[in-house]
Amino acid sequence: MTAALDPNTGKVLWSTTKYCVHGGCTISGANGRLYLGGYNRVDAGTPGRYVWCLDARDGSLIWQSDPLLVAIHVVTVGPRFLFVHAQNRNGYLIDKATGKVLNGKMTQTYQCTRFTLAEPYLLGCSMDVMDVRDPLTGGRLVSTGPRLDPSECTGSVVSNGRLFYTGQGGGFQTCRAYGAEAESFTPCWAEKPGR
User: Fold this and answer.
1) 1-108: which CATH number, 2.70.50.60, 2.40.128.630, 2.60.40.10, 3.30.360.10?
2) What are 131-178's pLDDT values in tens digits?
3) Calpha distance 114→107 (Å, rounded)
4) What is the Cα–Cα distance from 108 to 125, expressed in whole angstroms?
């Protein structure tokens, strides 16, 4: 079941049993739309799993994605694309307007990674940065490292012109500058004495 509640009263505004998160995925939302994925089959007669896009005003279906292997953890929302991950298997770049799979051959070697979509880049574990400007060839690794620990379950975060990644096991954190800040950035070990 999926339902919308009035946050002040708890009154049910709408509910549906036709569309719901179907195992191992959380609900995502942006700009009046809700995105639901999962790893369980919707019913025995379907060929795969789907991402559903619902209208947040009334719960009606806007689109159903092309069939997927699974969509675990979260449907990651970007300006033009959605990204979903099938652990140790395909990652999918999906057209946000239609639900059509644009690229279903990404992130095949990643385990339980949570990804961040900061277009034109998809960010994974260990500071991995993949270029998704061209959805057909998207997922080309353009930068990586350092690897902080063997776990790949956490993803990167973009904030205030920097890319952050925290290792799950040891809690070490790395930070990278990008864009204009990266061009003018001088690391402390490169500064001259007395500056």
Assistant:
1) 2.40.128.630
2) 888 887 767 888 887 777 766 777 777 877 778 877 777 777 787 877
3) 11
4) 13
Judged against a pLDDT cut of 80, whether residue 128 lies above it is answered with yes
In sequence order, which residues have a C-beta less than 8 Å from that of residue 141 and are 6 or more positions away? Answer: 128, 129, 130
Which DSSP helix (H) or strand (E) runs through 64?
strand 61-64
Three-state SS at 43: coil
CA distance 64 to 67: 9
Q: Is the peptide bond before 146 cis (omega within 30 degrees of 0)?
A: yes
pLDDT, tens digit (0-9, with 9 covering 90-100), for 5-64:
999 999 999 999 999 888 888 899 999 999 999 888 777 776 678 899 999 999 999 999
Contact 49, 70 (CB under 8 A): yes
- What is the Cα–Cα distance from 56 to 50, expressed in whole angstroms? 18
Nearest to 142 by CA among 125, 122, 159: 122
